[in-house]
Each structure stands twice: as structure tokens, then as C-alpha cells.
């Protein structure tokens, strides 16, 4: 199918535009850009060099994709922003490409990125995440699948968030947030397991109980995180979710929220 591209959009002739793409007036697309089939680019969107958009994405007004990194180490390298399929990127979002040549900022599939979100250089976002109004995600963060940030969340550089975790409004964090939990408060801490989301994803009640027991050992036991991992292995029935928790905590470099 032919694309529907306004004559009032400014599109470099080198840009690669897929089939059935709609680009509204006053959008700006640079030359080293690929836009996949069935995307919609609304007015005043800027799609900058190094951006690779998959299929069926909607990008709303005043968003900037592939902006140069806000990083003092950036020296003009030709890096990438890679965005998957089926994402909704609302108004006034800024997503930076990576700092160094060969690096990429990566956004997966089916994410909902609300108004005013900023995702910084070299960050990796999984699939089916929701980022609420005004959320700011610093560079080199790693956000796993099915994560929800409420509005006004601030993730500091290098932080990780595990699968199906939820961060409540106004929280800021510099340490890792493990899978399946609700993180809340100031300072941010463990607020229980994300039982509703786990149920919506078909996790059985007994498995949810096992997850809750694992986190009691981590957050309420009078032991180190290392000892808590050993206790989880000894006391909590094994399963995919429990292995995800153990592996995530073992891999932490910044530490876990709520733990010294």
C-alpha cells in the first residue's frame, strides 16, 4: 500500500519509509532513519538520524526520537535508537540515541509511553511496559517486560527494574527494583508484591504466595541479601518466577531498594 505523506512534512530523500505509513504536516525526518510499515507520525514530530522504527507505531506531536545523548562523553558518534513494533509514544516525549558508535538505546514492543517522558541514552526497555506522565529514565537503565511506572517517576543512571514490577507515583530510585513487586514511598522501598498484575498474567495464587514468601526473606529477614538468596533456595519451592527473583538479585551491581 502507498504511504500517506504530507507535502508539508520535511523528509530527507535518504530516509527509508515503509508501506502504509502516515506522516502529518510539519513532521521532520532526517536521512539515516527507517520507519516501518503502518506507522503514524503526527505533526511536529522529529525523527533524527540513527532512529529505526519498527511496524505499527504511533508517535504523537512534539516528540523527538533519536535526539543526541545528553552525555558529556558524547563526541558525535553515529549511534542508534531502535524501536520495535506496536508502541504508542505520546506528546512531548524525548528518547535519546546511544552515546558511542555501535551502541543503541532500545525500546521493545507494545509499550505505552505517556506525555512528557524522557528516556535517556543506552537504556534498554522491554515489552508491554507503561511509563506514566512526566517519567524520567536516565542513561544505561535496564527496564524488563511488563513494568509499570506511575506518573513522575525518576530512574537514576544504571538502575534496573525487574519483570512485572510497579513503581508508584513520584518515586525516585538509584538502586535496582526486583521483579513482581510494588515499589513505593520516599525513600523508596518494598511495598508488597504486584498481585494484581501477576494475577492478570495468569500466575497462580500458590505461586504468588511463594513470591511473597521469597520477598519476606529479602526485605523482612535480619540477614544480608546474599543470605536471603540462600534462604530462598532452601525454603521456597522452585519455579520460574523464583529463579527470576534469585537471578535478578544476584546480578545487582547497585544494590536493591530498601536494603543497605
Please, could you describe this protein's structure?
The chain has helices at residues 195-200, 205-219, 225-235, 240-250, and strands spanning 4-5, 10-11, 16-17, 22-23, 28-29, 33-35, 40-41, 46-47, 51-53, 58-59, 64-67, 80-83, 88-89, 94-96, 104-107, 112-113, 118-119, 124-125, 130-131, 136-137, 142-143, 148-149, 154-155, 160-161, 166-167, 172-173, 181-184, 189-193. With 260 residues, it is of the alpha/beta class. The strands form 3 sheets. It has an 11-stranded mixed beta sheet with strand order 1-4-7-10-13-16-19-22-25-27-28. Strands 2-5-8-11-14-17-20-23-26 form a 9-stranded parallel beta sheet, with no helix packed on it. Strand 27 and strand 28 form a beta hairpin. Helix 2 (205-219) runs antiparallel to helix 3 and helix 3 packs antiparallel against helix 4. The model has no long low-confidence stretch (mean pLDDT 96).
Measured by DSSP, the beta-strand proportion falls in 25-35%
Share of helix, binned: 10-25%
Helix count from the secondary structure assignment? 4
Which residues sit in consecutive blocks of at least 5 with pLDDT less than 50? none
Q: Mean of residue pLDDT?
A: 96
In terms of structural class, how would the helical and strand content be classed? alpha/beta
Largest sheet: 11 strands, mixed
3D shape: elongated
Strand sequence of the main sheet, in spatial order? Answer: 1-4-7-10-13-16-19-22-25-27-28
Summarize the structure.
Helix content is 17%, strand content 27%. The protein is an alpha/beta fold.
What's the structural blueprint in terms of helices and strands?
Blueprint: E1 4-5, E2 10-11, E3 16-17, E4 22-23, E5 28-29, E6 33-35, E7 40-41, E8 46-47, E9 51-53, E10 58-59, E11 64-67, E12 80-83, E13 88-89, E14 94-96, E15 104-107, E16 112-113, E17 118-119, E18 124-125, E19 130-131, E20 136-137, E21 142-143, E22 148-149, E23 154-155, E24 160-161, E25 166-167, E26 172-173, E27 181-184, E28 189-193, H1 195-200, H2 205-219, H3 225-235, H4 240-250
Helix pairs in contact: 2-3, 3-4
Amino acid at each position: 500500500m502507498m504511504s500517506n505523506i504530507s507535502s508539508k512534512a520535511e523528509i530527507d530523500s535518504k530516509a527509508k519509509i515503509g508501506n502504509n505509513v502516515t506522516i502529518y504536516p510539519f513532521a521532520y525526518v532526517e536521512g539515516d532513519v527507517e520507519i516501518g510499515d503502518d506507522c503514524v507520525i503526527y505533526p511536529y514530530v522529529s525523527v533524527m538520524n540513527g532512529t529505526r522504527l519498527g511496524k505499527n507505531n504511533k508517535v504523537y506531536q512534539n516528540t523527538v526520537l533519536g535526539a543526541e545523548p545528553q552525555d558529556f562523553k558524547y563526541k558525535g558518534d553515529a549511534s542508534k535508537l531502535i524501536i520495535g513494533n506496536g508502541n504508542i509514544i505520546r506528546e512531548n516525549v524525548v528518547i535519546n540515541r546511544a552515546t558511542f558508535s555501535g551502541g543503541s538505546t532500545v525500546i521493545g514492543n507494545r509499550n505505552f509511553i505517556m506525555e512528557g517522558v524522557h528516556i535517556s541514552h543506552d537504556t534498554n526497555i522491554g515489552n508491554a511496559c507503561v511509563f506514566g506522565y512526566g517519567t524520567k529514565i536516565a542513561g544505561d537503565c535496564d527496564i524488563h517486560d511488563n513494568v509499570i511506572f506511575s506518573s513522575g517517576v525518576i530512574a537514576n543512571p544504571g538502575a534496573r527494574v525487574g519483570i512485572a514490577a510497579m513503581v508508584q507515583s513520584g518515586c525516585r530510585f538509584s538502586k535496582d527494583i526486583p521483579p513482581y513487586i510494588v515499589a513505593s514511598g520516599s525513600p523508596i522501598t518494598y511495598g508488597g508484591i504486584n498481585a494484581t498484575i501477576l494475577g492478570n498474567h495468569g500466575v497462580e495464587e500458590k505461586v504468588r504466595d511463594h513470591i511473597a514468601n521469597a520477598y519476606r526473606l529479602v526485605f523482612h529477614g535480619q540477614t544480608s541479601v546474599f543470605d536471603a538468596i540462600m534462604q530462598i533456595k532452601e525454603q521456597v519451592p522452585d519455579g520460574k518466577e523464583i529463579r527470576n527473583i534469585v537471578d535478578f538479585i544476584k546480578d545487582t551491581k547497585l544494590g536493591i531498594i530498601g536494603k543497605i
